[in-house]
Amino acid sequence: MKTRICLLLLAWLVPVAAAERPNILWLVSEDNGPFLGCYGDPLAQTPTLDRLAHEGVLYERCFTMPVCAPSRFTLISGMYPVTCGPAQHMRAQGKIPPWLKGFPAYLRAAGYYTSNNAKTDYNAPINVKEAWNACGKQATYQNRPAGQPFFSVFNHEVSHESCLFPNNEPSQFDPARMRIPPYQPDTPELRADWARYYTRIANLDQQIAAKLKDLTASGLADDTIVFYYADNGGVLPRSKRFLQESGTHVPLIVYYPPKWRHLAPAVPGSRIKEPVHFIDFAPTVLSLAGVTIPAHLQGRAFAGAAKAAPNEFVFCTRDRMDERYDMMRSVVGSRWLYIHNYRPDLPYVQPLNYMFQARGYQSWARVARDGKLTPATAMFWGEKPTEELYDMLADPDSVHNLAADPANRETLERMRAALEQRVLANNDNGFLPEGSALEGYAASRVPGAYPLERVFALATLASLRNVANLPKLIEALDDPCEPIRWWAAQGCTLLRSQAAPAETALRQRLDDPSGAVQIAAAEALARLGQPEVAMPTLLRWTQQSATPPFAVQAANVIDRLGEAARPALPALKTALAAARKEPGKAEQYPVRILTHLIDVLEGREPALVYPPPP
C or N: which end of the chain has fewer Cβ atoms within 10 Å? Predict the structure, then answer.
């Protein structure tokens, strides 16, 4: 009888012990790089986060996508946005496989209470109710059943980009003391923005302190692993939306209470130098919680029982930002940053409506119009090199491009190879035109439908802007594969007048089965000095409301023509009136673009002035 009682008692105790798992709390800030004292910033007033770093583990090299929605797709899915096009674009709905869950669903299945306060801009139809027990501005771990372990997220918007839009908010920092990085012009507006931003970071530190105080008051601090991180890089000019370190490098601090310190990768106060990425967060949380990591997750756990070997490189992408297209890919290591620009003809800074509400960008445009750009400030304001290579230790501002330096040839080639490997492993949908029938996890994986090795090779060839490759581009214009024809046409655009031998083949593509190829061919013809040939095709697509991505692509091309579009001004006004009748956010992108161009042509808004190509 005594033995039976002992066995029953053991049977009751074992599940309780097995179920004991750490709570996990994510404290997230928006739009800021590592402007913290613990990251060596002498101006920052961040005592709470500095103390958290002293007592926890600081990651010196955490990287993410350069804008929020693709970053959140990465976090919630544990997959790169480019695997499920068009999730890599800002404000798009990725076409995900039916089995893809938000990773908190796996925690729920293991007995965790999950809450999210409150962002859900995941760029995909993730099942929010499956992922979260509670989601919204009232969601909190405090509402869980007593004793249940939790995974809880709190987003802090105090540092969001919009804080730099014109207002009369006072600053506690002296603008005269601000460090203006060499890639930005030293204007009063930028000094004021830096001062305001440091004020917001100080406010953020106070909000984090309040969250930690609540955790302690609840008696949960000893059982809770705390993550602090930012959702994408800093928001001052040449950060958010761009792949330089200023746009993708974010702070990450993880605190492990003594009870759970055996799950930490290092002792308190440690600084991890190997790169980590948002792609690693989902497997890391599952590893900390003792939950099996699904095979489809693409990152590596950097802590917990399933901790993996460190990353050598991590991977970042930049595609459409709201109404403006561009395409960049980067590979980042502990020291080196490599960027490949697939549309190097497009200036870094395009007239993106939301971004230009910031006074810093407005002042930079004024300096450019006045012809007062320095070599460093002109570098970011104009066209891009095809390749960029930066030594992040020697050049944290990313102003010395070493891609052409023979001394770094081996590093360049190694990172090129890493980029190609990652593009192919991800089945990168960014090499497809947005709106293509091939986009999405399933469609892009149909055997033979999307020959990415060929597409990647042609896109890379096109980006080189070498006229010697024109015969290959002309041949590719007749390829049966849509993205091959699309990149061939873009390659002709990059060559401008040097692509004249491709004129006949480009004219034939104005009747291509793909709207994206038609638009790309029209742009190439316009760059050959034939905007009158291109304009009918472009205007027609701006008014195709059934295919919003093609309308946005066509409007972008028309806007890039600038003064060459003046003869079409009456037709542009008609197109704008039609676009204004369309509902929905994406459908309004052509409105923004056409409004900008018409305002420039009619003198209501100054055109952006760019330095001549290098």
Answer: N
The values of phi and psi at residue 197, to 5°, are -70, -40
Residues 601, 558: Cα–Cα separation, whole Å: 12
With respect to residue 453, please indicate whether it lies within any of the assigned structural domains: no
Residue 554 identity:
A
Is residue 399 in some structural domain? Answer: no
**Which among 38, 62, 68, 163 is annotated as catalytic?**
68
> How far is CA 356 from each of CA 96, 290, 342, rounded to the nearest angstrom?
32, 46, 24
Total domains present in the chain: 1
pLDDT in tens, 290-342: 999 999 999 999 999 999 999 999 999 999 999 999 999 999 999 999 999 99
DSSP state of 609: -
Q: How much is the pTM?
A: 0.95
Residue whose structure tokens are 């090199």: 385
For the residues 374-381, what does the mean pLDDT come to? 93
* pLDDT attached to residue 587: 61
Residue 501, CA distances (Å) to 140, 207, 504 in order: 64, 62, 8
Is 38 marked active-site? no
Q: Is residue 199 part of a domain?
A: yes
Check which CATH number belongs to the domain holding 68 and give it.
Answer: 3.40.720.10
Token digits for 429?
A: 């949908």
User: What would the pLDDT profile of 6-16 be if each residue is shown by its tens digit?
Assistant: 333 333 333 33
Domain with 251, as residue range(s), is 23-309
- The reply to whether 377 falls in a domain is no
377: left (phi over 0), alpha (psi -120 to 50) or beta: alpha
Angstrom distances, CA of residue 185 to CA of 174, 237, 347, 368: 18, 10, 17, 9
